[in-house]
TrEMBL record:
Keyword Hydrolase: no
UniProtKB keywords: DNA-binding
Name of the molecule in the record: Putative DNA-binding transcriptional regulator
Annotated HTH rpiR-type domain residues: 3-79
Pfam families with a match to the protein in the record: HTH_6 (PF01418)
Keyword Metal-binding: no
BP-aspect Gene Ontology terms: carbohydrate derivative metabolic process
GO molecular function per UniProt: carbohydrate derivative binding; DNA binding; DNA-binding transcription factor activity
Length: 284
């Protein structure tokens, strides 16, 4: 059963060897896909041998991965494991559970709406701007500063000349006084809107900077400065509005940017990966 397997893996993580722990971690993150995996695909994704995967299956009490897959396929037919039913179970937790259920429904609808943006003329225009501009600057203030920094960090894996603007210099000189002839600005914004965001958007519009605003659906001033406005639904029953749609939209943009850049993105990722190895950026 999915639930039983998950509990067993989590309970025994600290007892596993390093290789076993890496396999278990992969399995926990991909439980729904395991019925379609093989020892070879798991081994390739985790970076271990097929023999190691097979031995781990026996450690878990299975004769092989085939037995595990059969068990998972049978359990997936159980209606209690359907997403809709699992969501309905939240309501049984009382008032707090009902709020969680309502918030989950809002978030699901918001994510579906994000996916529906993909391939639209607006979407294609934004992807082209992010690929073809001489430089791309990203800004987000207050609670969106982290989202903006993450967007810039991941975009620079795909293309050069990407920077974060925080306004600390008081002039945004990197954008308005830099060397790029045709820069672009990506501005993240959601309620409560900052004065700095609006001033930056106004100045970018006047300076002829290609402006992309990624914002919530209440951002009434964005369209006054650009036609490239990607608006997402951030409504939530939680204390804070949801930022999940911003992250999902970013992921989808990066996918299309990578596809459009093709070998340029692949080559750049390869060079940066080699640098990471040289500087020991990650644990093996």
């Amino acid at each position: 059963m999915n639930g039983d397997l998950e509990r067993r893996l989590r309970a025994d993580l600290h007892r596993f060897t390093r290789s076993e722990r890496e396999i278990a971690t992969y399995m926990l993150a991909n439980l729904q896909d395991l019925p379609f995996e093989t020892a070879a695909t798991i081994a390739a994704r985790v970076g271990v041998s097929q023999m190691t995967v097979s031995r781990f299956m026996r450690t878990l009490g299975y004769s092989g991965i085939g037995e595990l897959k059969e068990e998972l396929r049978e359990s997936s037919l159980n209606p209690s494991l359907l997403l809709t039913d699992r969501a309905e179970h939240l309501k049984k937790r009382g008032p707090a559970g009902r709020d969680l259920h309502a918030s989950l429904q809002l978030e699901i609808r918001a994510l579906v709406a994000v996916y529906e943006l993909v391939g639209t003329p607006l979407w294609q225009r934004v992807v082209e701007t992010l690929c073809d501009s001489d430089a791309v600057f990203v800004a987000g203030f207050q609670t969106l500063g982290g989202i903006a920094a993450d967007f810039a960090a991941r975009l620079q894996y795909l293309r050069p000349e990407v920077g974060v603007l925080d306004g600390a210099d008081g002039t945004f000189a990197a954008l308005f006084g830099g060397k790029a002839d045709a820069p672009a600005l990506v501005l993240f914004e959601m309620r409560r809107y900052t004065r700095l965001s609006q001033l930056l958007a106004e100045q970018a519009s006047r300076a002829g900077v290609r402006l992309i605003v990624i914002c919530d659906r209440h951002c009434h001033w964005a369209h006054a400065h650009t036609e490239d406005v990607l608006a997402v639904n951030t409504e939530s029953r939680l204390f804070w509005d949801s930022q999940s749609p911003f992250v999902s939209l970013s992921n989808l943009l990066f996918e299309d940017i990578a596809q459009r850049l093709g070998e340029r993105a692949t080559d750049r990722i390869g060079r940066l990966t080699a640098l990471q190895q040289n500087f020991g950026a990650f644990l093996d």
